[in-house]
């Protein structure tokens, strides 16, 4: 099956480039012409673009950089924790990347190192990245000392 798909792909590529040649099918012709077209591509980090695109859905989101500890409870008193960074925020929401298995409507606790921010939030949006998830969480209650006011 794999050999057939490989043969089919090579045949389609050749016909599209109008360079039909039997040597190409035997693997003796180099693929330089085809490969050189894709060498100068720059692709943004999928996780960074996932977080940015999620934050762009909220027009008031402001870029920031606040280190926090995210914790979420999982059955029988199990607590999962992770250090991460709030990268965007609004008066009632924060946006961060996480490797935790967070889902919509999960209640998370957010706390910074000096404990001036210690609040609960509900996950309202999740976008999967390559190694992280982009997460948007809405504060459960008004945060008095939050940087951004509504």
Can you give me a brief rundown of this structure?
The chain is α+β, with helices and mostly antiparallel strands. The chain is 24% helix and 37% strand. It contains 4 helices and 6 strands, in the order ααααββββββ.
**Which CATH class of the largest domain applies here?**
Mainly Beta
Tell me, what's the shape? globular
What fraction of residues sit in β-strands? 35-45%
Please give the order of strands in the largest beta sheet: 1-2-3-6-5-4
Quickly give the CATH architecture of the largest domain. Answer: Beta Barrel
Q: Strand tally, please? A: 6
The biggest beta sheet is recorded as: 6 strands, antiparallel, barrel
Question: What proportion of the residues is helical, as a percent range?
Answer: 10-25%
The CATH superfamily of the largest domain bears the name predicted glycosyltransferase like domains
The ordered string of helix (H) and strand (E) elements is HHHHEEEEEE
What low-confidence regions span 5 or more consecutive residues with pLDDT below 50? 1-5, 16-21, 24-44
Distance between the termini: 59 Å
| Mean pLDDT rating | 78
Radius of gyration using CA atoms only:
24 Å
CATH fold assignment of the largest domain: Thrombin, subunit H
Attribute tags:
single chain; 6-stranded antiparallel β-barrel; 2 domains; Thrombin, subunit H; alpha+beta; about 150 residues
Can you put this structure into words, describing what you see?
The protein is α+β, with helices and mostly antiparallel strands and 150 residues long. It folds into two domains: 2-38, no CATH class; 46-139, predicted glycosyltransferase like domains (Thrombin, subunit H, Beta Barrel), CATH 2.40.10. 24% of the residues lie in helices and 37% in strands. The chain has four helices and six strands. The protein has helices at residues 2-17, 22-26, 32-35, 46-56; strands spanning 62-74, 78-89, 93-98, 107-112, 118-128, 133-139. The chain has a six-stranded antiparallel β-barrel. Strand 1 and strand 2 (78-89) form a beta hairpin. It is globular, with a radius of gyration of 24 Å. Mean pLDDT is 78; it is low at 1-5, 16-21 and 24-44.
């Amino acid at each position: 099956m794999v050999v057939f798909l490989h043969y089919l792909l090579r045949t389609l590529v050749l016909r599209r480039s109008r360079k039909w040649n039997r040597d190409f099918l035997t693997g003796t012709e180099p693929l330089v012409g085809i490969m050189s077209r894709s060498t100068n591509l720059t692709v943004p980090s999928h996780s960074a673009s996932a977080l940015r695109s999620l934050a762009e859905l909220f027009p008031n989101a402001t870029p920031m950089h606040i280190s926090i500890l995210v914790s979420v409870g999982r059955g029988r008193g199990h607590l999962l924790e992770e250090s991460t960074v709030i990268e965007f925020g609004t008066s009632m929401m924060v946006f961060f990347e996480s490797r935790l298995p967070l889902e919509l409507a999960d209640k998370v606790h957010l706390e910074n190192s000096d404990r001036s921010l210690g609040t609960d939030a509900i996950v309202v949006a999740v976008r999967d990245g390559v190694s992280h998830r982009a997460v948007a969480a809405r504060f459960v209650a008004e945060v008095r000392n939050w940087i951004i006011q509504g």
